[in-house]
Specification:
Elements (H helix, E strand, L loop, with lengths): L4 H13 L2 H8 L3 H15 L14 H28 L3 E8 H6 L1 H11 L3 E8 L1 H9 L5 E4 L8 E16 L9 E2 L7 E5 L4 H12 L5 E6 L2 H9 L4 E5 H4 L5 E3 L2 E2 L3 E10 L6 H15 L1
Parallel strand pairs: 1-2, 1-3, 5-10, 6-7, 6-8
Antiparallel strand pairs: 3-11, 4-8, 4-9, 4-11
Length: about 290
Amino acid sequence: MGTSLQSLRVFLSILDRGSLSAAGRELGMTQPAVSNHLHTLEERFGVTLLTRGGRVRATPAGESLAKHARQILDDISALENEMARHAGPRGHLVVGASSTPGELLLPRLAVRFSARYPEVALDVRMADTGVTIASLLAREVEVAVVGCTVEHPQLVGRVIEEEELVPIVAASDRIGEDSITAEDLSGRAFVMREEGSATRRAVEKGLSEAGIGARVAMELGSNTAVAGAVAEGAGIGVIPSRFVASQSSVRLLKVRGLSIRRPFVLVVERGRELSPAAEAFVQMCVERNER
């Protein structure tokens, strides 16, 4: 009688979770079903694999089985990925995106990717930069695109596009109908993106480098909301340049000595073996940047 891969998975789950009931909850199985898998393995090899009573622990035989089981399941996963590469990308791909690249870049990337790989169901999950990076580290997403460079030992980033951020005022505001200097903005009320946003960090850095002391009057969670508040006279906003043309109730404010640019960065986990779909997405982004 052979040994099923599912029985090996159940055995490792028992060890990792410390009990049959906890393993059942993780795997969506009843405790009797978990017990049956364990019993099958012990009958197959003629040994006791786990201690009974309290938190279960592996016997010497169980430790040996666990070592080989992990290797077998890793090898099976590698084999499945290798076969999938021969078959071409398919299945489900989850991509994380922070707000601004999610609004401005990901729609174009998603359309291009889906046209090229119609058998991949693409799921784009938008959040602020901090949440997006945390999701990547937790393996809730496989690839992420954020609006800043990322310094983390477990992550690798690559710039795939750059974005200019520009100041705006309400169309009815008389300030700066011609260009003005950075000093003219010091102390003025600013409408900012929320804390944790890469746009917010880039704007604060750019204003500081230009010697502008911004007074934050309002914090909002999207570029659309910032533009809307500025249009109502809440203060000066800074939003992506390509976003301005769609906002008829605001206008660009020309400020001499102020230049704010920030990258859109593709981020993956260092050393992680990506699915064929994720590899195809990364390659498409790299090809696009190299043209």
